[in-house]
């Protein structure tokens, strides 16, 4: 059986590839940059060029594929092509936003609500496209990923400091390995067909606590230097990278929101695996070289 992993060089995709290869499966890794991907993936994995924006690259990637891990925002045409080529199961890397109830007024700002609605619609569109093929499907919906903390890596490497607003902003960040573990199980067993799983970290941690976890992994003190929202806006604005005022509006509103955490912790990972989710402390130890 050939299993396809799209977005295979991404933070979650490469964990999915490793999990499947470690289980002795025949894995095909689809990526826009095969040369780079080969340096990130286990030996023996077939790496092929494939680009969602270039349909002419799909046929070679999909030939003989029975099950596929689908990267976020894959076009419906790709899923249709996969089904026509014989793919009989899709595991969709979605997001918790796909299940967000946008019709409920929960006190969030208009900018944040617009962002969540766009995220919901984009991810749910891919889920529905997978379902419409008639193939088996599982949707894996992670909450906020701990990999977002890599945005702090440059400052930590430079002078052991994190500069951000709202030190008490808290979320139950999820380790990418937990997301991949559930995806691998959904690809290899029949126990998860037709399920949509929300995966989170074990408990909300504030930004200040997240910084402490990085410092503990390094064995050094890392400072949290609080910025005002306007200082953060000036420091983070980068139109060349798509970080404009519209993005900053919802991001700062998210951090300022003083209601319940955006994604409450779930027991899904523990229920499915029998183990507690990996903590931010574990994530920091796993990524300590990024901050060294």
UniProtKB/TrEMBL annotation:
**Domain of life of the organism in this record?**
Bacteria
Q: Which InterPro entries match?
A: Ergot_Alk_Oxidoreductase (IPR051604), NAD(P)-bd_dom (IPR016040), NAD(P)-bd_dom_sf (IPR036291)
NAD(P)-binding domain segment(s): 7-188
What span is annotated as the signal peptide, if there is one? none
Q: Which Pfam families match?
A: NAD_binding_10 (PF13460)
Protein name per its UniProtKB record = NAD(P)H-binding protein
Q: Which organism is it from?
A: Nonomuraea longicatena
């Amino acid at each position: 059986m050939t299993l396809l992993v799209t977005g295979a060089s991404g933070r979650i995709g490469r964990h999915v590839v490793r999990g499947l290869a470690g289980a002795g499966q025949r894995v095909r890794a689809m990526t826009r940059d095969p040369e780079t991907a080969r340096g990130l993936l286990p030996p023996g994995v077939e790496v092929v060029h494939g680009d969602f924006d270039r349909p002419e690259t799909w046929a070679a990637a999909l030939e003989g594929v029975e099950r596929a891990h689908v990267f976020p925002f894959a076009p419906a045409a790709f899923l249709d092509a996969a089904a026509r080529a014989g793919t009989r199961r899709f595991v969709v890397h979605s997001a918790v936003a796909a299940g967000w109830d946008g019709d409920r007024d929960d006190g969030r700002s208009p900018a944040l609500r617009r962002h969540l609605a766009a995220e919901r619609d984009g991810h749910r569109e891919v889920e529905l496209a997978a379902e419409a093929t008639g193939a088996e499907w599982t949707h894996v919906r992670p909450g906020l990923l701990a990999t977002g903390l890599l945005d702090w890596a440059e400052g930590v490497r430079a002078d052991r400091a994190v500069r951000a607003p709202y030190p008490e902003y808290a979320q139950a960040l999820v380790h990418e390995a937990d997301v991949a573990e559930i995806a691998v199980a959904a690809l290899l067993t029949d126990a998860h067909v037709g399920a949509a799983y929300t995966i989170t970290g074990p408990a909300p941690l504030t930004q200040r606590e997240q910084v402490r976890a990085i410092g503990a992994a390094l064995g050094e003190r890392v400072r949290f230097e609080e910025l005002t929202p306007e200082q953060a806006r000036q420091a983070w604005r980068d139109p060349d990278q798509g970080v404009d005022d519209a993005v900053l509006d919802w991001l700062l509103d998210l951090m300022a929101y003083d209601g319940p955490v955006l994604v409450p912790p779930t027991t899904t990972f523990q229920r499915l695996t029998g183990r507690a989710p990996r903590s931010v402390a574990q994530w920091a130890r796993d990524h300590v070289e990024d901050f060294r």
